C-alpha cells in the first residue's frame, strides 16, 4: 500500500475524521488521470479549524474532513464538475478494510 494512504488512514484514525469515497465515472474517457499512475495524488487544505484532504487514486477519490457539512459541500461541487458516483462512507481502499 502506498505510504501516503497509510499516513492518511492514520490521520483519520487519530483525529476521528470522516472519510468518504467517490468514483469518477468517466475518468479514463475524459483523460482526467493517467492510467499508468498508481501513486495517489493528495491535496490538503486548512481553513481556520477546518481541515480537508482529497486523495485521487486512479479513478477513486477519498474525501477526508473534520467538518461533515463541508464534506457534503465538496461532494456536491465535485458532482457538478464531473460525472461522479457517491460511494458513501469508505470501508475499503485498495481491497483493504478500513
From TrEMBL:
Record domain Reverse transcriptase Ty1/copia-type: where: 41-97
Record's InterPro entries?
RVT_2
Name the source organism. Answer: Sesamum angolense
Listed name of the protein: Reverse transcriptase Ty1/copia-type domain-containing protein
The superkingdom of the source organism is Eukaryota
